[in-house]
Structure formats: C-alpha cells, structure tokens
Amino acid sequence: QVQLVESGGGLVQAGGSLRLSCAVSGRAFKIYAIGWFRQAPGKEREFVAAINWRGDTTYYADAVKGRFTISRDNAKNTVYLQMNSLKPEDTAVYYCAADRSPYRVVLTTDDGAYNYWGQGTQVTVSS
Known about the structure:
- With 127 residues, this protein is an all-beta fold.
- It contains no helices and eleven strands.
- The chain has strands at 3-7, 10-13, 18-25, 32-39, 46-51, 58-60, 68-73, 78-83, 92-102, 114-117, 121-126.
- Strands 2, 4, 5, 6, 9, 10 and 11 form a seven-stranded mixed sheet that branches. A four-stranded antiparallel sheet has the order 1-3-8-7, with no helix packed on it.
- Strand 5 (46-51) and strand 6 form a beta hairpin.
- The protein is globular.
- The model has no long low-confidence stretch (mean pLDDT 95).
C-alpha cells in the first residue's frame, strides 16, 4: 500500500513563506516522479510543480514560477515544496501525488498520470 502524507500547511500573510513536505511510503520512491497540485474552493484541481525521479528536472506552473521550488530527498523518501512570496490566490488545499510510471523522462502536468495521492494540506494566505 502506497501512502503519501502532506504536512506544513497553515495560515500565512501575503509575502510570507511556507514549506510543504510530502512523505512517501510503501513503494520504490526513488524511481517515480512526484507532483504537487492544488485545489481552491469552487475551482478545478490544478498542477503546481513536479520533479523527476532523479531530482534533476523540475517543472512549474506559470503562476508559481520563480516563487515556488520543488525538491526531493530520496534518502528520506520526502518531497518538498518551498513557497515564497505567497499571494492570496495561492490559497488552496495542496496535494502531492506519485507518478504511475517509473523512470518517466518527460514530466507531465496531467493529474491522470499520477495514481497515488495524499490527503492534502490547507494553505491559507491572508491579504
């Protein structure tokens, strides 16, 4: 059984920072890409960032490029999302997800390509 557990969400003022963590267990973590997605109230879930299995390739949504950084520590089976210069429009539930295909070469923003999901962590940015 694969489990992903997010942590690190909370309430922060605009311009502040948060670091989300995604701990993965139950599968060969090192060979799968991991993605972060978010869903705001009344909106569709959207892609935020992804990192490949080796940790040397990343991809970001335009809305967060330059403000968010995704990274992974394969020794700890954990992926991080460092979020800086937060804006009220970043308010959402943030989810991490594991790619269904090992050793994926080209990262994907399609949530259908990710088959294991965490329960989500709430991020609220006040103005």
